[in-house]
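Deliverable D5.2: sample structural annotation.
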Amino acid sequence: MKDRTYPYYFSLGAMLLYVLLLVFPGVAGILYAFTDWNSYDSAVHFIGLDNFRQVFSGENMYLSYIKNTLVFTVSTILLKTVIGFFLALMLIKGVLLKNMHRAVMFMPAVVPMLIVGLIFKSVLHPDTGLLNTFLREVGLGALAQHWLTDLTWAFKSIIAVDVWKGAGYIMVILLAGLQTIPKDYDEAAEIDGAGYWSRIWHITLPLLAPALTVSVVLNMLYGLKIFDTVYVLTNGGPGYATEVIYTGVFKEFSMGRYGVGTALSTVLFMFMTVLGYFVVKWMGREGGGAMSLRLVKRWSLNAFVWIVSAVTIAPLVLILINSLKDSAQASSMGMDLPTSLHLDNFAVVFEKGKLSQSLWNSLLYAGLSTALCVVLAALAAYVYSRKPNRLNRFSYMFMLLGLAMPLNYFTLTKTMQLLHLINTQTGIILLYAAVQIPLSVFILYGFVGGVPRELDEAGIIDGCGPVRLFFEIIFPLLKPAAVTVFILAFLNSWNEFLLPLYFLNSASQWPMTLSVYNFFGQFQMDWNLVSADIVLTSLPVVVLYLLGQRSIIAGMTAGSVKG
């Protein structure tokens, strides 16, 4: 087949966005980390390792930011993996309404982290919060705490909130892995006298290694870049007890200390780039009484799964119920039903929060960036898969580094200014697309490999050029993967909080996430209105999740099953 059938320019769009908005700011950040760059002096001077000395000296709090980030990452990896594994084991046992429980447990994963933070600011409130209220009602009032303001409990609470949000995500990945393990192995070991836990340890876990590796890697990449949870729940407090790298970077940015902030970002950038190298290497691999007892076990298992589902859905139901109350009844943020329905809360929120403009902005940003991402990623994945020469193999692996690469917001801001994209809708759309391209290329690459090359040859014989061949023959066959990528990218873009926080200064251009955060700051005493705002912001992604959960789960589990 002629070499020009798979032209290099197909992959240029994705690579250009990726290099310009992710790689270049990261590399430039390394250079600026050795300067005294700040907002008070236009001149930039080379100062050697001074910024890094500040970061690692221990005289400031920067080391505690790094320590907290690592503790958060390790803790959430362990907790979410263990909890997700046992939930997956329970669901694969054939509990009643298995698909419903899976949908409920996974739902928090698609809710914006900003929204989760606002929900748990209510749940963990020391006086009216659902958790302390429950503890007092069951006679355990002595266990009630100031969860978010106590030095002992604040960081633990943030970890717990993140585990609540992410355990279902890990469960789905591990459940997909468990479903590929042949039952014959387990049955043979049981016949040989192996106990249940022995079979789990010696058979299930080794065969589940690919899915476990995916879950650990994804958790690690997410945990090291944590921002939204901490920013919304505690903003790094009390004191510096919950400060992590990205919240510290944001504060350095706000104070105009770009040199030190860039050095702190560079530490994370270098660490995650090295980590990303190993991730890419891994991704690149090919590859009677007994009846009564069983009945008791089965019903016990079902009961426990129902409890987990209830704990998962309770905070979301709490917000929905209180969005229908008046201000006085919602002030206690209880689970009691509203004495009368106040649907007018949603109209008030729409008017006072100017949500019509924010809703349009979110749809515009998420819709256009996702469409751009799908097309560019599909073109790139097509060329990388169909023409696997040395350059394309390198380009594909280089692209996958973006899965681990953190953004350097200091130099990214400078890049956006040079391109005249700062505080523009076009800039946000391009940024959203650039951030989603590495994962999208990874998912689509595998699907392109499953499309027979004979179709390419038939198209060429019929006179198709490269563009027509791709869009008329190949791309329609990628529809399942394209739908998966579209839904995942749309959800991620809709939920994005940090990028618009940095790059959109005009309220008229804010997406829903920024508007709901601003609304909370203005009306935090009116929990009925705050709850209504949260419902309106979350509703589109929840509906999209319920309609497309099969595609979402397919994308989430991409790469977790080798074979």
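Annotation notes: Confidence is low (pLDDT under 50) at residues 286-293. The radius of gyration is 25 Å.
The annotation will be released with the project's public dataset once the embargo ends.
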